C-alpha cells in the first residue's frame, strides 16, 4: 500500500486578499511560511520517503519548507497544479458570485482526469512508499474524490497547510 499525505499549500498573499489564483505562481505570506514550518514540526515523527509538489511556486515553497527540515529534495509535477480558472484568474473572489462561468475554466471532468493521472504517477513512481504531496485546494479535492470514488462536492474544503491521509 502507498500512503499519501496530501497537503494544501500555506496561505498566500492572494489567499489573504481573496484573489482567484488558479495556475499563477503565487507567493506565500508570512503566515503561510509559518503554517508550513508548523506543519513540518507536527510531522517530525512521521515517516516520509519522498516529497512531491505542484510546480507552482506557492506549493513548491510549502513543500521545500517541510522537506528542508529533513534535508530532502522535492520532486515537482504539473499534475498537481490548481484548477485553471481561465478568465476568473486574478479577479477578486467576492465579485465572482453571480458571474457566469467563462468557457475557458478547466472542467471538473478534466480536473478529475488529471487527479487520476496524479494517483497513477504516485503508484508507479512510489509503490509501497509514504509520500507527502503539496497541492492546492481544488486539485486536492479532485484527488480525494477520485481516491474515495465520490463526487468532488462530497469532499470538505481543505484549509491552508492542512494534511489529509490517503492510502491506495
Determine the number of helices (DSSP H or I, runs of at least 4 residues).
5
Which whole number gives the mean pLDDT?
Answer: 97
End-to-end Cα distance, whole Å, is 6 Å
Q: Helix proportion of residues, in percent?
A: 25-40%
Largest sheet: 5 strands, mixed
What class do helices, strands and sheet pairing give? alpha/beta
Low-confidence stretches: none
Looking at the structure, what is the overall shape?
globular
Q: What oligomeric arrangement do these chains adopt?
A: single chain
Number of strands: 5
Succession of helices and strands: EHHEHEHEHE
| Strand numbers in spatial order across the main sheet | 3-2-4-1-5
Strand content: 15-25%
The Cα radius of gyration reads 15 Å
Can you describe this structure?
By secondary structure, the chain is α/β, with parallel strands linked by helices. It contains five helices and five strands. It has helices at 13-17, 30-42, 57-68, 108-125, 137-148, and strands at residues 3-8, 50-54, 74-77, 130-135, 163-167. It has a five-stranded mixed sheet, sandwiched between helices. β2 (50-54), α3 (57-68) and β3 form a beta-alpha-beta unit. The N and C termini lie close together (6 Å).
Amino acid at each position: 500500500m502507498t500512503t499519501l499525505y496530501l497537503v494544501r499549500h500555506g496561505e498566500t498573499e492572494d489567499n489573504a486578499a481573496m484573489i482567484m489564483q488558479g495556475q499563477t505562481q503565487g507567493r506565500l505570506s508570512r503566515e503561510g511560511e509559518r503554517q508550513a514550518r508548523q506543519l513540518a514540526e507536527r510531522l517530525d515523527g512521521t515517516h516520509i520517503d519522498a516529497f512531491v509538489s505542484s510546480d507552482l511556486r506557492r506549493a513548491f515553497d510549502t513543500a521545500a519548507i517541510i522537506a528542508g527540515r529533513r534535508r530532502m529534495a522535492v520532486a515537482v509535477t504539473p499534475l498537481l497544479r490548481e484548477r485553471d480558472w481561465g478568465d476568473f484568474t486574478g479577479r477578486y473572489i467576492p465579485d465572482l458570485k453571480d458571474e457566469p462561468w467563462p468557457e475557458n475554466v478547466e472542467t471538473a471532468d478534466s480536473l478529475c482526469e488529471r487527479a487520476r493521472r496524479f494517483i497513477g504517477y504516485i503508484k508507479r513512481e512510489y509503490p509501497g512508499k509514504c509520500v507527502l504531496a503539496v497541492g492546492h485546494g481544488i486539485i486536492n479535492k479532485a484527488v480525494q474524490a477520485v481516491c474515495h470514488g465520490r463526487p468532488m462536492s462530497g469532499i470538505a474544503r481543505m484549509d491552508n497547510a492542512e494534511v489529509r491521509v490517503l492510502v491506495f
